[in-house]
Design a protein that fits this description.
Blueprint: H1 8-23, H2 27-38, H3 48-61, E1 65-69, H4 75-81, E2 90-95, H5 98-110, E3 117-121, H6 124-134, E4 141-144, H7 151-160, E5 167-171, H8 187-201, E6 205-214, E7 217-226
Helix pairs in contact: 2-5, 3-4, 6-7
Length: about 230
């Protein structure tokens, strides 16, 4: 058996390798990250392999109506919009910060998705009821990547805006391993632990979670399929 070094340097190297071989350079996505960085947005977008994972998941799902909770600079939104079928489909992405929303709109427009991607400004806990009242759902795929203490509330709203067969994905659910610490008082960890309990006890979904390592550190995704 070959012994391989482990640690963040190795994770970064593997991510670079996977990006080069499986994701490949993309000027539009690279420009989105560059503009977000120049505007001072935090470097917390999904990695390129994770972005393509979301894209493939949406394509496997055959998603035509996608909801994203937490836009940031629009990087993951571009990946999701690219999964929509040609000539149809819609992406709604929710962002609380006006500066982030402005950058995201510009990035989505440059990517050619201004006509199908809507960035809704405001607290998601306020805009989600608006979507329900407008009859915007049901959504085929919902990606939750916003403030972690509110994850349980976002998941509850995701269920309201779902149908049987909807896929719900939640990012950053491992928190560097802190999610396993039952004594943690960290608000983000507590939000994720509440989310996990909800997913585990909710009869309308079948759910699991995967740990990940890479350029974004040690974290993971939860994924739930609405079955009832």
């Amino acid at each position: 058996m070959t012994e391989v070094a482990t640690g963040e340097d190795t994770w970064d190297a593997v991510d670079r390798y996977l990006t080069e071989v499986l994701v490949q350079p993309d000027a539009v996505l690279e420009a989105a990250l560059r503009d977000a960085a120049q505007a001072g947005l935090p470097a917390i977008s999904v990695s390129p392999p994770q972005g393509k994972f979301l894209n493939l998941l949406a394509r496997v799902q055959g998603a035509r109506n996608i909801l994203e909770i937490g836009t940031l600079g629009g990087y993951s939104a571009i990946w999701l919009a690219r999964a929509l079928p040609p000539g149809g489909g819609r992406l709604v992405t929710l962002e609380v910060d006006p500066k982030h929303a402005e950058i995201a709109r510009a990035n989505l427009a440059r990517a050619g998705f201004a006509h199908i991607a809507q960035v809704r400004l405001g607290r998601a806990i306020d805009t989600l009821p608006e979507l329900e009242s407008e009859g915007a759902g049901p959504f085929d795929l919902i990606f939750i990547d916003a403030d972690k203490p509110s994850n349980p509330e976002y998941f509850d709203w995701a269920l309201k805006l779902s149908r049987r067969g909807t896929v719900i994905v939640v990012d950053n659910v491992v928190r560097g391993g802190a999610v396993a610490d039952a004594a943690s008082r960290d608000a983000a960890v507590l939000g994720v632990r509440r989310l996990n309990r909800m997913m585990g006890s909710e009869k309308r979904v079948s759910a699991t979670a995967l740990q990940t390592v890479g350029s974004k550190g040690y974290d993971g995704f939860s994924i739930a399929l609405v079955i009832g």
